[in-house]
TrEMBL record:
Domain of life (superkingdom): Eukaryota
Originating organism: Zosterops borbonicus
Membrane topology: Multi-pass membrane protein
Compartments where found: Cytoplasm, Perinuclear region; Endoplasmic reticulum membrane; Lipid droplet
The protein, known as: Acyltransferase
Keyword Membrane: yes
Keyword terms: Acyltransferase, Cytoplasm, Endoplasmic reticulum, Glycerol metabolism, Lipid biosynthesis, Lipid droplet, Lipid metabolism, Membrane, Transferase, Transmembrane, Transmembrane helix
Length: 358
């Protein structure tokens, strides 16, 4: 407001350079505000996509079937049946969608940054273990399902596939939107196809802690659910895919949630949902749409820095024993801890901070 008044006063006085300077300041102020609003809109659309797009599109499709435009819905449903197995076969990514300008505004809202520590060979396939889950895995989405942070430039020849709940790909429209970003179902069929029938240079990003880890994420806490998560190691051994630890500093800072104690009714309900549906409902909040001092669904604009660690070379073993799985799982855990310890002070954590592995 002071800048606007200053510019107006300068115009009235006709003071040459002062007028020009004030107008430049005014232009910068308006541009800055416009960019901030675009950042908020870009993040809001993804939050709504994450929370309600699947259900909303299903209901809209059912409604259209009951109207004079039923043929449109019928054609899409016929296409859906024909295209049902596409998500299990690498999906249908679109570089155009991955390069949308909206993702750059999404990146700058927090901001989100991708840090490369080692080169990746295009002659190998990889499984990235992403930690921690956070509430929505915002860093995982921005870094690996869009080109906003330059994953394609940082790792040329590597095609990232972010793996998420298979149930999302049963939702009309949502499935197509997710596939366009290179997102695939986190199930054995999909992962087997990408690692064995899609050539080399593939990197499947698995948020290893999953729903269980999201229940414990809270600002100021760095913990991962990993001790008993060994399925991804077994998959890596069966395909000879190198394991890459990835840690996102700040992922847990963007939302606050109510943490239910073990044994409480709230935790019991969450675990039942997790067991039968695949996700755990969380009671969380961020900031409001118009003010950071109110509660809402928008995440807090805290920086998220995703560090991609050194790949662990994994041999191809068609039928790995439990001893093999345990050995490479132990190597992976040690590598993740070393990655955390090496970079924690660079991204705002004290030297005494310890990564809690559950």
């Amino acid at each position: 407001m002071k800048t606007i008044i200053a510019a107006y006063s300068g115009v009235l006085r006709g003071t040459g350079s002062n007028v020009l300077s004030a107008l430049q300041d005014l232009f910068w102020l308006l541009k800055s505000k416009a960019e901030k609003q675009l950042q908020i809109i870009s993040v809001l659309q993804w939050v709504l996509t994450f929370l309600v797009m699947g259900i909303a599109c299903t209901l809209i499709l059912m409604y259209i079937l009951c109207t004079d435009c039923w043929a449109i819905a019928a054609l899409y449903l016929a296409w859906l049946v024909f295209d049902w197995n596409t998500p299990k076969k690498g999906g249908r990514r679109s570089q155009w969608v991955r390069n949308w300008a909206i993702w750059r505004y999404f990146r700058d809202y927090f901001p989100i940054r991708l840090v490369k520590t080692h080169n990746l060979l295009t002659t190998r396939n990889y499984i990235f273990g992403y930690h921690p889950h956070g509430i929505m895995g915002l860093g995982a989405f921005c870094n690996f399902s869009t080109e906003a942070t330059g994953v394609g430039q940082k790792f040329p020849g590597i095609r990232p596939y972010l793996a998420t709940l298979a149930g999302n790909f049963r939702m009309p429209i949502l499935r197509d939107y997710l596939m366009s970003g290179g997102i695939c179902p986190v199930n054995r069929d999909s992962i087997d196809y990408i690692l064995s029938k899609n050539g080399s240079g593939n990197a499947i990003v698995i948020v290893v802690g999953g729903a269980a880890e999201s229940l414990n994420c809270t600002p100021g806490k760095n913990s991962v659910t990993l001790k008993n998560r060994k399925g991804f190691v077994k998959l890596a051994l069966r395909h000879g895919a190198d394991l890459v630890p990835v840690y996102s500093f700040g992922e847990n800072e963007v939302y606050k949630q109510v943490i239910f104690e073990e044994g409480s009714w709230g935790r019991w309900v969450q675990k039942k949902f997790q067991k039968h549906i695949g996700f755990a409902p969380c009671i969380f909040h961020g900031r409001g749409l118009f003010s950071s001092n109110t509660w809402g669904l928008l995440p807090y604009s805290k920086p998220i820095t995703t560090v991609v660690g050194e790949p662990i070379t994994i041999p191809k073993i068609d039928n790995p024993s439990q001893k093999d799985v345990d050995f490479y799982h132990s190597m992976y855990v040690d590598s993740l801890i070393k990655l955390f310890d090496k970079y924690k002070t660079r991204f705002g954590l004290p030297e005494t901070e310890v990564l809690e592995v559950n």
